[in-house]
Amino acid sequence: xxxxxxxxxxxxxxxxxxxxxxxxxxxxxxxxxxxxxxxxxxxxxxxxxxxxxxxxxxxxxxxxxxxxxxxxxxxxxxxxxxxxxxxxxxxxxxxxxxxxxxxxxxxxxxxxxxxxxxxxxxxxxxxxxxxxxxxxxxxxxxxxxxxxxxxxxxxxxxxxxxxxxxxxxxxxxxxxxxxxxxxxxxxxxxxxxxxxxxxxxxxxxxxxxxxxxxxxxxxxxxxxxxxxxxxxxxxxxxxxxxxxxxxxxxxxxxxxxxxxxxxxxxxxxxxxxxxxxxxxxxxxxxxxxxxxxxxxxxxxxxxxxxxxxxxxxxxxxxxxxxxxxxxxxxxxxxxxxx
Length: 338
What we know:
Elements: E1 3-8, E2 20-27, H1 30-38, E3 46-50, E4 56-57, E5 62-69, E6 74-79, E7 83-89, H2 94-103, H3 121-125, E8 128-129, E9 132-133, E10 138-145, E11 151-155, E12 176-186, H4 198-204, H5 212-226, E13 234-238, E14 244-246, H6 247-256, E15 263-264, E16 269-271, H7 274-280, E17 287-288, E18 291-293, E19 300-303, H8 309-327, E20 336-337
Parallel strand pairs: 2-5, 3-5, 4-20
Antiparallel strand pairs: 1-2, 6-7, 7-12, 8-9, 10-11, 10-12, 13-19, 14-16, 15-16, 17-18, 18-19
Helix pairs in contact: 4-5
């Protein structure tokens, strides 16, 4: 196992931000993780686990140890008449895993197609899209404490899943290395196509049958048309969470903004697309220096080349302020800011 000094992280974050790590190591096995954690040289160093770098914004160099998760493997643990349990190594590409499920006609992941990043980040972020979240299928997370190396198995209820939230982003932030995630997939398909443009896209595709694959294809088509490729323009996907407001607040908003899109839940709350709010404030396609809100999806902040993390954060704060002034609604940052 090689530990590098002053390692550039520019090619390891999808924003393409120039930053470096004091120490950097790529981990391919639990033995290597144990060796690294047990090294007295790194005991007192701050630690950051890095996956695909698709949901992180570096605002400065990292003064500590960055651990790159390279764990690989997808295994079907067991099956019954209705479900299949699949264990996925945390370093596996998320979309590769989704396609693994789609190809085997296992339902539950199709709405989460083409989300960038690695599987280990899925429970950390409780990633979600088009009305589906990881908490619906996530059964168990295997994690290892970054100081003691102790192994923990966290069940779904232990993860404290919320909207783009989990125990790993709050109480246990930067304390664990996630090695694998086990999911419970369905053999009986119940499509969820009423969120966003999925139904319309299926109609445009002239899909004769609504299957796991056609839903996945529709989501891929939508995401490809709206979201910029980080290989072309630096970005971390959706930068902000969709705000959730109480029904009373929403009723006040809809009176002044009758075209406001919304998604009501069962808890007397309403989710409002942050992208729509940002667009109404005039940010869509607006560029400031080397950064800006993307022309096709204002929820995505981009690095046109040479932007710093501080510049992007400054833009984000200006957008947050303008949405608050216009609508009285707070939009929170989804991306992990380091």
